[in-house]
Amino acid sequence: MNQTSHRKAKKAVIMTAADSVAIALDDLASGDRVKIRSLLQEIVGELKVSDSVPYGHKLSVKPVAKGAEVIKDGEVIGVASQPISPGQHVHIHNIVSLYVPPPRTKAPKARREP
Amino acid sequence: MHFMGYERPDGSVGIRNHVIIIPSVSCGNEMAARIAEQVPGVKPIFNNHSCSRLKTDNDLATRALVGLGANPNAAAALVVGAGCDTVPASEVADGIARTRKPVDYVDIEKDGSYGKAVEKGVAVARALLAQTAALERKSCNIGNLTLGMKCTSSDTTSIIACNPVVGQATDFIIAHGGSAIFTETTELIGATHILTRRAADESVARTLCRRVEEMRQRIKRAKVDILRSQPNPGNMKGGLSTIEEKSLGGIGKAGTTPIKGVLEWGERPRTKGLFFMDGSANTQIVIVGLAAAGAQIMSLSMGGGVCARLRTSTINTAGGGLPVLPIIKTLSNPQSLPEADYFDVYVGGVVEGRETVAEAGKRLINEIIAVASGKMTKLESFTSPFQEVWEFYSIGPLV
């Protein structure tokens, strides 16, 4: 049996057809095949995941250019801070709010090597 | 569409028929408990309003106390106070009396002593119980309902399931001529652009923005700026990336109709439709504010997580929360399925693709009609040795 093809398809849900992201309903790993379904329970697509995407996080279902709007539930939830391709994890590393500067995150302290 | 409710003299309709005891100030809590102990069936509503507060907060407390008594789920009210209170019991009773429901008050100064005030309170409470016990439910239009809303322990499933499901109920009640109120000003900091698009007119949009900015400035005076603190680390861990995305999830529960107006905390809407109420996101304060604004039924939509595992979360109290505001709890996250029994409606099937939002919405609407007609909520059916002391919204410092 083929070693790669029997990986079970994992699930994600897309809120509206206009959306550029789907929400992972399984923990996804790079290389996983994911079935995208709508809220009406129809399978609307399938794609290959290129990052690890935790349960509840977003993955891109269409290419988004740098600076372009990212759409979820038919609404703009931010813009891409770098180009995003289908199957990628979409989160604070590649989208930013249009209204609020990114949250202050504590920069890790420089570690002195012993 | 109809439910079986209690008609009140002011034309409002209750879904419960409680005789409540309202201490006008926290000093009256013990007296209220003493009276309630001797009159089984009456419901005390303990609160934390005390002296050493500024006028703005005394005004907020007065409106809340009157609003709790005026709430259609109260058939009658007894107000208790000391006599020296910042919010006099007589003033609260006068406010409630405008609804023409039976109301009376006792205080130590007027009645002569603690013992005499309690003794009279017991007699009044018994009389009010007797006077209201015979009231019967009648068929009433859904349009008489005001639904209060809050979401809590939100996670990524909230936007998929519980909030849009609640949105269906909101739209349904408003379509039948009723009202709905959502609140939590803090949650809108940085996200007013999402909500102002829903405003019925320019003035509503402006008021909304002003309220949010006032809240932000109050927080800044405490030397914290939370503009950049959203979404919080927990939200981000759960997959929310921007404030827009977080707010979008929360608004789902408000359905799709325009926002007719912005209410002060505890203020009753003057017309029907969807309203936003200014105030804190603290669950207890939200519950009191909604009840004081006249909501007879409330929806608490929960994602999941540890909060879902607290049986009475997030309203720890004997006999199911604030007596005048039954709460229907909706659970969203399939990972919290073991806790589903603590909830009135489980909508994890929407997340898993076994049920549509419309189907789950219909189940929630049926539950609302059943609870409005007398079915006990999960929270109402739990007994607990603990009694909540309800917190009132305050904006000034304690002095």
Question: What brief labels describe this structure?
Answer:
heterodimer, A: 114 residues, mainly beta, Archaeosine Trna-guanine Transglycosylase, Chain: A, domain 4, 6-stranded mixed sheet, globular, disordered N terminus, B: 399 residues, alpha/beta, Rossmann fold, 2 domains, 7-stranded parallel sheet, 4-stranded parallel sheet, 14 strands, 39% helix
Description:
The complex is a heterodimer of chains A (114) and B (399). Chain A is 0% helix and 33% strand. In chain A, a hairpin with a 6-residue loop joins strand 1 and strand 2 (21-24). The radius of gyration of chain A is 16 Å and the shape is globular. Chain A has strands spanning 10-14, 21-24, 33-38, 43-48, 58-60, 69-72, 75-80, 89-90, 95-96. In chain A, the strands form 2 sheets. A 6-stranded mixed beta sheet of chain A has the order 4-3-1-2-5-8, with no helix packed on it. A 3-stranded antiparallel beta sheet of chain A has the order 6-7-9, with no helix packed on it. Chain A has a single domain, classed as Archaeosine Trna-guanine Transglycosylase, Chain: A, domain 4 (Roll). Chain A has no helices and 9 strands. With 114 residues, chain A is mainly β. Residues 1-6 of chain A have low confidence and may be disordered. With 399 residues, chain B is α/β, with parallel strands linked by helices. Chain B folds into 2 domains: 18-133, Rossmann fold (3-Layer(aba) Sandwich); 142-381. Chain B is 39% helix and 17% strand. Chain B has helices spanning 29-38, 55-70, 89-97, 108-111, 114-133, 156-160, 162-175, 192-196, 202-221, 233-237, 243-251, 283-292, 306-309, 348-352, 357-372, 378-381; strands at residues 2-7, 13-14, 18-23, 43-44, 74-81, 103-107, 138-141, 146-152, 179-182, 259-263, 273-277, 297-302, 327-331, 345-346. Chain B has a 7-stranded parallel beta sheet with strand order 10-11-9-8-12-13-14, with helices on both faces. In chain B, strands 4-3-5-6 form a 4-stranded parallel beta sheet, with helices on both faces. In chain B, a hairpin with a 5-residue loop joins strand 1 (2-7) and strand 2. In chain B, helix 1 crosses helix 5 (114-133), helix 2 packs across helix 12 (283-292) and helix 7 (162-175) packs across helix 15. The A-B interface holds A 11, 13, 15, 23-25, 37, 39-41, 54-58, 72-73, 75-78, 90-92, 95-104 and B 155-157, 159-160, 190-191, 193-194, 227-232, 236, 238-239, 241-245, 248, 252, 350-354, 356-357.
